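Please decode residue identities from the backbone states below.
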């Protein structure tokens, strides 16, 4: 009895397994000599998971894959062109419309997609998730190569887009990937509205508008190369992200229009990019907690780096040959350190506005038309230390031109500023341990304010006063000033003037109202 029951159970299980196993995927071949002479006829006959192999030839069709044929694989075997236009006529919609999930399309050339009524003129019109497109070419499609709606998880790799009248690819959805593609001679590159987008190792040339554009959080844009591209007529950006946590690294942008890298959102990381020959900002960020590090920036009609946001880190960048600022920042608590800034033909090396707190340290600034570093009147509590500034202010400006309140100016070296080495117009500064040499006018000029402390500075060979004080209630002590037209001068008596040395061994210029009190 037990044996019979066991046999019955085994038979039932076997029947269940056999009836639930998926059918083996089929392969349908399309060619001029096969039963399937059109791609659409093979699609109609195929089921989910099947493969369609298309042999060489030009197929003039508008192919539609309906919903339900999930996982269909369409693979070109040889040179296969899917053309949406009969020779001598206009196109009639997209070359390929995909409404099924998880499709794989490989090796095709799509051309002459044209907008007709509600139908987009794309090479591929994708309306489902999980699409993979690899090793395809898109030529002269009116609405771009790929238009993806609800294209979550789409991956486009090793494809070429040429002469598109719109963006090479436009997608809506998260987790979209574009990698190792080439875009040439088109209106735009890749635009995605979605989160966690990856764009890596793509190449662009002669593209009129944005090349890599994301509207969403967590974008990763890395190792792309762009030549001769950007926003036409000064608009747009080559790399544009609107979203938080963008990661932009190791991209090379050359001969660009509009901004090079433009991020709007918090916690952007912009690292080790090379951006050169632009007509607007090379890097622009609007958002807090930006990290801009180790970028190489060359030749811009505007700022090299422009940041509007709090708690920015701008570190170890190289900026040269720009016609506006090397670094322009608006925001609290920045850290601007170890940058090399040279040949700034229009304005300052570093300009900071509307800022409380922060550190500007160990930067090297050479050859600016205006000030080496400028802090405007809306700043306070910034530490400026260890910077090396030389040959600046060709437009009759200063090495350090510091306005605002309660800044700490320590350990800087300023050589050959056209006007003053350090020029101060504010209150309660600490100016200590700086070295100033061969400046056109004063070494250190305390123009306005009160309660300044000026101590242990060395000022040599300047064209006017070594140290000039025009501020109330200030302390000048233990400085060394020699070889200047006049080593010390004061319009207002300091509270303390002590321990200062002149080149001739005396303590002060006789014009000082108070000596060694």
């Amino acid at each position: 009895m037990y044996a019979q029951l066991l046999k019955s159970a085994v038979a039932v299980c076997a029947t269940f397994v056999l009836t639930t196993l998926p059918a083996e995927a089929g392969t349908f071949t399309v060619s001029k000599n096969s039963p399937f002479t059109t791609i659409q006829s093979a699609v109609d006959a195929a089921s989910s998971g099947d493969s369609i192999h298309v042999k060489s030839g030009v197929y003039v069709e508008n192919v539609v894959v309906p919903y339900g044929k999930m996982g269909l694989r369409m693979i070109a075997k040889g040179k296969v062109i899917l053309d949406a236009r009969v020779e001598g006529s206009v196109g009639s919609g997209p070359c390929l419309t995909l409404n099924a999930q998880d499709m794989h399309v490989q090796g095709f050339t799509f051309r002459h997609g044209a907008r007709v009524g509600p139908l987009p003129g794309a090479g591929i019109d994708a309306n489902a998730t999980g699409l993979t497109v690899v090793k395809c070419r898109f030529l002269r499609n009116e609405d771009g190569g790929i238009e993806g709606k609800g294209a979550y998880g789409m991956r486009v790799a090793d494809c070429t887009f040429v002469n598109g009248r719109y963006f090479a690819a436009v997608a809506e959805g998260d987790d979209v990937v574009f990698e190792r593609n080439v875009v040439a001679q088109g209106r735009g590159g890749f635009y995605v509205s979605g989160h966690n987008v990856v764009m890596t190792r793509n190449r662009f040339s002669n593209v009129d508008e944005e090349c890599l554009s994301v509207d969403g959080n967590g974008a990763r844009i890395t190792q792309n190369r762009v030549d001769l591209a950007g926003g036409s007529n000064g608009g747009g950006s080559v790399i544009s992200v609107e979203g938080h946590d963008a990661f932009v690294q190791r991209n090379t942008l050359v001969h660009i229009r509009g901004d090079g890298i433009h991020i709007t959102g918090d916690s952007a990381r912009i690292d080790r990019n090379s951006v050169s020959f632009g007509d607007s900002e090379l890097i622009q960020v609007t958002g807090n907690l930006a990290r801009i590090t180790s970028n190489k920036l060359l030749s811009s009609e505007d700022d090299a780096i422009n940041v509007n946001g709090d708690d920015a880190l701008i570190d170890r960048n190289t900026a040269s040959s720009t016609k506006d600022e090397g670094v322009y920042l608006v925001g609290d608590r920045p850290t601007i350190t170890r940058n090399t800034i040279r040949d700034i033909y229009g304005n300052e090396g570093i300009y900071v506005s509307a800022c409380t707190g922060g550190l500007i340290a160990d930067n090297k600034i050479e050859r600016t038309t205006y000030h080496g570093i400028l802090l405007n009147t809306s700043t306070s509590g910034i530490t400026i230390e260890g910077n090396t500034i030389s040959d600046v202010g060709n437009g009759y400006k200063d090495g350090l031109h510091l306005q605002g309140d309660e800044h700490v100016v320590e350990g800087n070296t300023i050589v050959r500023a056209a006007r003053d080495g350090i020029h101060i117009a504010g209150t309660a500064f600490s100016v200590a341990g700086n070295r100033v040499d061969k400046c056109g006018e004063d070494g250190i000029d305390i123009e306005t304010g009160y309660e300044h402390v000026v101590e242990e500075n060395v000022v040599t060979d300047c064209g006017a006063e070594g140290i000039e004080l025009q501020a109330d209630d200030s302390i000048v002590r233990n400085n060394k000033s020699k070889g200047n037209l006049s080593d010390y001068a004061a319009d207002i008596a300091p509270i303390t003037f002590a321990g200062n040395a002149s080149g001739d061994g005396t303590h002060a210029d006789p014009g000082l109202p108070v000596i060694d009190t």
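Observation: Confidence is low (pLDDT under 50) at residues 5-22, 505-511, 513-517.
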